[in-house]
Amino acid sequence: MMDVASAAGVSQATVSLVLNGSKLARLSDETRKRVMEAADRLNYKFVRRSPKSARNDQATILFVADEASTDPWMTLAFEGARDKALDYGVNVLMAVSHGDAEFEEGLLTNLVDQPILGIIYGTILTRQVNLPAAFAEHQAVLVNCYDQNGVLPSVLPADLLGGRVATEHLIGLGRRRIGMINGQRGLDNPRDRLKGYKQALTSHDILFDPDLVKPGNWEPSSGFQMTLELMALDNPPDAIFCANDLMAMGCFDALKQLGLKIPDDVAVIGYDDREIARFLHPPLTTLVLPQYEMGQTAAELLLDAVNGLTTGPKRIKVECELIERESTLGTRQPALEGAAE
Questions:
Q1: In the chain, where are the structural domains located?
Q2: Whole-number Å distance between alpha carbons of 241 and 285
């Protein structure tokens, strides 16, 4: 699937959505055509699984998402859960609640007499959730979220590790003044990515400089403005880690406005691996948000729990893979001796 993504010039997430025939994702006909043509050229055989002999009782998993239209993340998680469940002859149906507790309560109440095997509940933002009481009547697993008391198993992205991997990648290129444009304050993702950033600096004897960390809001505008502020420092960064790809887009624009070359003057790395990351100039190095794999893991945990198997840790972290592209390629510099002053 990664080979198809490379050949089509799209993200792996887009390939998954196209080959699964997802109608929930907002993809152009041209993008869908490009993916299918690349798959044909590479002789990639995508097997469309149909349910095996589905059980007559409790043969369906309900996937409840708080949002599915603004970003592809929950759609991808649903696709992963569906594919894994089909291996066991179980269907998965999706409902979008928009975070409305009354809707969610009513949805489960109306399904009380239906053959529901269990529930997967997912959120666009990594956060704590307080589920309606009706969820207690069913086996449930959480995706990209967790409950306050840790009662339910949850599957989350390994954002702390991701932040560390991104920063260490830049350090490995010889960069020592690494700026960070983080996401919205108060959310789990930016908190953990910042922790990983700090850990990487410490591991390589680089002193943490709070002036190099700027708050963003996930949008390109904040990436643009925060990059201007970083580059206005007396000792500006030679690399910038943006906590998502949209802010990296704004970072690119700011650096180009300042007449700086990417990656020669400033290396840039993002996070999420949105489709746009491949089409920036230069293409953006980033980390994959593993929602498809998280959905697969959630379905497996739910099926294990239903069958009385030990589910293991209550929280499972799924690694975010680094995808290296030209925004950091070719920038390897001789590492400075000793720690940064």
A1: 49-151+290-319, 159-285
A2: 10
User: In terms of Cα–Cα distance, which of 30, 23, 319 is closest to 9?
Assistant: 30
Angle at 6 (CA atoms; ends 217, 84), nearest 5 degrees: 80
DSSP 284: P
The CA–CA distances, whole Å, from 30 to 1, 35, 70, 154 equal 18, 9, 20, 36
Q: What is the DSSP secondary-structure string of 254-278?
A: HHHHTT--TTTT-EEE-SB--GGGG
Instruction: Give the pLDDT confidence of 14-24 residue by residue, as tens digits.
Output: 777 777 665 54
Q: For residue 195, how many other CB atoms are within 10 A of its CB?
A: 15
Q: E-strand spans in the chain?
A: 60-65, 91-96, 116-129, 140-147, 154-157, 178-182, 213-215, 239-242, 267-269, 286-287, 315-318, 322-323
Residue type at position 323: I
Contacts of 254 (CB under 8 A, 6+ apart): 223, 224, 225, 227, 228, 231
Phi and psi angles of residue 101, each rounded to the nearest 5 degrees, phi first: -65, -35
- Does residue 119 surpass a pLDDT of 80? yes
- Architecture (CATH level 2) of domain 49-151+290-319: 3-Layer(aba) Sandwich (3.40)
Summarize pLDDT for 35-58 with one digit per residue, the tens.
888 888 888 876 554 444 444 445
Q: Are 49-151+290-319 and 159-285 equal in CATH topology?
A: yes
151 Cβ contact partners less than 8 Å away, ≥ 6 residues apart: none
Q: Has residue 326 got a pLDDT over 80?
A: yes
Please say if the pLDDT value at position 273 is more than 80. Answer: yes
Eight-state DSSP code of residue 288? B
CATH superfamily of 159-285: Response regulator (3.40.50.2300)
Judged by DSSP in three states, 203 sits in helix
